[in-house]
Design a protein that fits this description.
This protein is α/β, with parallel strands linked by helices and about 300 residues long. The protein folds into 2 domains: about 50-240, Vaccinia Virus protein VP39 (Rossmann fold, 3-Layer(aba) Sandwich), CATH 3.40.50.150; about 245-290, no CATH class. The protein is built from 8 helices and 12 strands. The protein has helices at about 10-35, 60-70, 75-80, 80-100, 120-125, 175-185, 210-215, 285-290; strands at about 50, 110-115, 130-135, 145, 160-165, 185-195, 205-210, 220-230, 235-240, 245, 260, 270-275. Helix 6 links the parallel strand 5 (about 160-165) and strand 6 (about 185-195). Helix 4 crosses helix 5 (about 120-125). The longest helix is centred in the N-terminal third of the chain and has 23 residues, at about 10-35. It starts with 11 loop residues before the first helix and ends in a 7-residue tail after the last helix.
C-alpha cells in the first residue's frame, strides 16, 4: 500500500500578508511626504494672461527661493530702518483713499498677506484700523505672524479686509486667491497691488499681463474697481468684493436651487442678482422679503 504524499503547504497567504504590510508601509510614507507641504501635489493652472515661471522642481525649492530674500539680513535691516517710514507713508495714503471709498473702515478686521516686516500693517493701524495683522513665511512679532499664503492659518470668514502686494510671488495663484476668498467674510474686500506694465523681480513666481486673469481667479467675488497706482514697482490696484451667496429651497425653482447674492450696493428695487430664472410661486415674495430684511443696502 502506497503512503499518501501530502502536498507542500502553500506560502501564498504568508506572501500576501507580507505584501499587504509592505504596501501599507509605502502608502504611509507617501502620505507623509505629501503632507509635508499642503500644496506639494497641487497642479499649476493655465490662464491666458498669467504665466507661471518655470524652474521650481518642488514646493521646497520654491519656498527656499522665497526665504532667500525674506531672511536676507541686509534687506531686513533696510526694511526696518531706511524703508520703514517711507513705505508706511505710501501705504497710509493708499489706505486713506480706500477709507474714503468706504472699502475699508476703522472697524474692519484686516489681514496683510505677504507682509514681510509689516509696514502695511503699521499703516493700517495709523489710519485707525487697529484690528490688523500680517502674514508671512518669516514672522515679525507682534504685527506679522508666520504662515504660508497658499494655506492661510485662519478659519473661514475671518476678515473684513485683505491686502496684498505679493500676488506675483504665488506659485499657485488659484490657491492664493482661494485662501483669500475662504478667509474673507461675505461682503469683505480684497485689494491687490500688481504689476501689469512691467515684469516683477527675480523672486516672482508668476507674470501677470492684464487684470483679466484676476477676474477669473476671483470667481466668488465681484470686481469693484481697478486703477493705476505707483506702489514700489507695482502699477495697478484692483479691489474685489467677496459675494454673499444664498441658496433657496428647491421648491422655489423650476429645475435647481436659486442662487442669489447680496452686495452693499443698490441694484434698484432689489439688492439681489439672479443667477438663473425663478418661478413665480405664491409665497415667494415673502421669502425674498424675509431674506432681504437681514441685510442693509446702502444706495
Amino acid at each position: 500500500m502506497k503512503e499518501a504524499i501530502n502536498p507542500p503547504k502553500s506560502s501564498t497567504p504568508k506572501a500576501f500578508f507580507l505584501s499587504l504590510i509592505l504596501l501599507s508601509l509605502f502608502y504611509l510614507i507617501f502620505l507623509s511626504l505629501q503632507s509635508k507641504h499642503p500644496n506639494s501635489g497641487h497642479r499649476t493652472i493655465t490662464i491666458n494672461g498669467l504665466k507661471i515661471r518655470p524652474g521650481y522642481t518642488s514646493y521646497d525649492t520654491y519656498i527656499h527661493h522665497q526665504l532667500h530674500k525674506t531672511t536676507n539680513p541686509k534687506l531686513r535691516k533696510i526694511w526696518t530702518s531706511r524703508d520703514w517710514d517711507r513705505k508706511i507713508r505710501v501705504f497710509t495714503r493708499f489706505f486713506s483713499q480706500l477709507k474714503q471709498e468706504k472699502l475699508l473702515t476703522n472697524s474692519s478686521k484686516a489681514l496683510c498677506v505677504g507682509a514681510r516686516v509689516g509696514q502695511e500693517v503699521e499703516a493700517l493701524k495709523r489710519v485707525g484700523v487697529n484690528d490688523s495683522i500680517g502674514l508671512d513665511l518669516v514672522p515679525y512679532p507682534p504685527i506679522v505672524i508666520k504662515g504660508d499664503f497658499h494655506h492661510q492659518p485662519f478659519d473661514d470668514k475671518t476678515f473684513d479686509f485683505e491686502f496684498s502686494n505679493v500676488f506675483d510671488h504665488a506659485l499657485y495663484p488659484d490657491k492664493f486667491v482661494g485662501e483669500i476668498e475662504r478667509t474673507l467674510k461675505p461682503g469683505g474686500i480684497c485689494v491687490l497691488h500688481v504689476a501689469i506694465s512691467r515684469r516683477a523681480d527675480k523672486y516672482s513666481a508668476n507674470d501677470l499681463y492684464s487684470i483679466e486673469p484676476l477676474k477669473k481667479l476671483f470667481n466668488g467675488s465681484d470686481l469693484v474697481r481697478s486703477r493705476k497706482v505707483d506702489g514700489f514697482g507695482l502699477d495697478t490696484e484692483v479691489a474685489f468684493e467677496n459675494l454673499q451667496v444664498l441658496v433657496l429651497d428647491r421648491k422655489w425653482s423650476v429645475h435647481c436651487p436659486i442662487l442669489l447674492h447680496c452686495n452693499p450696493v443698490d441694484y434698484g428695487p432689489s439688492s439681489f442678482k439672479f443667477f438663473n430664472s425663478w418661478l413665480h410661486v405664491e409665497g415667494f415674495d415673502d421669502v425674498l422679503i424675509g431674506v432681504a430684511s437681514k441685510f442693509v443696502v446702502n444706495p
